[in-house]
Amino acid sequence: MELFRIGFLSVTLFDLLDIALVSFIFYRLYLAMQGTIAIQIFAGLILVLAVAFLAQAANLKALSAILRTITDIWVVAFIILFQPELRRLLVLVGRSPVVRLFLKMNVDESIDEVVGAVGELSRKKYGALIVFVRATGIRLHAETGTKLEALVSRTLLLSVFHPRSPLHDGAVIIKDRLIEAARCTLPLSNITTWQGILLGTRHRAGIGISEQADVIVVIVSEETGTISIAENGTLYRGIAASALKKELRARLSVEGDRSLASAWRTLRQGGWS
Predict the structure, then answer these.
(1) 3-state class of 229 per DSSP?
(2) Cα dihedral sign for 263, 234, 28, 91?
(3) For 4-25, what is each residue's pLDDT tens digit?
(4) CB atoms within 10 A of CB 115
(5) Contacts of 245 (CB under 8 A, 6+ apart)
(6) How many whole angstroms separate alpha carbon 247 and alpha carbon 255?
(7) Among residues 162, 151, 167, which one has the least CA distance to residue 112?
């Protein structure tokens, strides 16, 4: 049904909905890429698309063909050159509560076993790096380690992270009830200090994987025994062993996607590993 006309253009209700939807998508893309190099290329791509649309509406066939070719090449170059930004965008989509409604995770037993192991590791000051995969898998990172495919257990985690174990270096990756792999290599974050304190490799790796994937990372410092959680590129330090179970359950459930302002945000002074 035609609503009105602008010159030779006929505007319908579906046209308005189409414009509103495209505008919303571009706006969200702009917010996701704001502050990165990709935003400059993105702005140029939008300009080319706008000019191509106007050329097509004005029936400028030669100009439309040229701009269409440029747009096709630009889109491919955009995907290749700015893969990290696009991956970050897809991760943000995967973290949406709407997406998580369709995901069922069986992690209660895993959390109980991990909490028991982390409490003992913290007391003994054995370093640990445990990754809970939430929505999107991290198979490429799991393949860098030793494949286990074993049920999560407190005893197994204590064995893996014992200083004399050949698997204690690197991360353990957990998916639902299984430990997918141990001794995994994770990407390091560019963040080297946190609140004025120098970060070690273990904490940088925990933050790094949480920046790139939808995961929850539990970190135990081998210097102080301090327990930390990394999520969405943010490090929360000084979590009591008794509160870890509640925090993990909150974050690994749909309800946990809401902003948490728990008591563990109170930071304590100490060293990092």
Answers:
(1) strand
(2) negative
(3) 666 556 777 777 888 888 888 7
(4) 21
(5) 111, 112, 115
(6) 11
(7) 151
CA 266 to chain centre: 24
pLDDT tens track for 53-102: 788 777 777 877 777 777 677 667 666 766 666 666 666 565 555 555 54
CA angle 113, 114, 118 (to 5 degrees): 125
Q: Is 48 exposed, middle or buried (0-12, 13-18, 19+ CB in 10 A)?
A: middle
Structure tokens of 4? 């009105």
The domain defined by 108-265 carries CATH number 3.40.1700.10: yes
Q: Where are the domains of the chain?
A: 2-94, 108-265
Q: Which residue has the tokens 């989509």?
A: 93
Report pTM: 0.61
Maximum mean pLDDT: which of 61-75, 128-142, 211-225: 211-225
State how far the alpha carbon of 214 is from the alpha carbons of 10, 92, 114, 137, in Å: 44, 8, 19, 8
CA 110, 157, 226, 230 dihedral sign is negative
227-231 and 234-237 strand pairing: antiparallel
Q: Are 252 and 134 in contact (CB under 8 A)?
A: yes
- Those residues with Cβ within 8 angstroms of residue 222's Cβ, 6 or more apart along the chain or in another chain: 125, 126, 127, 202, 273
What's the helix, strand, coil split of the chain in %, to 5? Answer: 50, 20, 30
Q: In sequence order, what E strands does the chain have?
A: 2-6, 9-12, 128-133, 146-151, 171-175, 178-184, 193-194, 197-198, 215-220, 227-231, 234-237
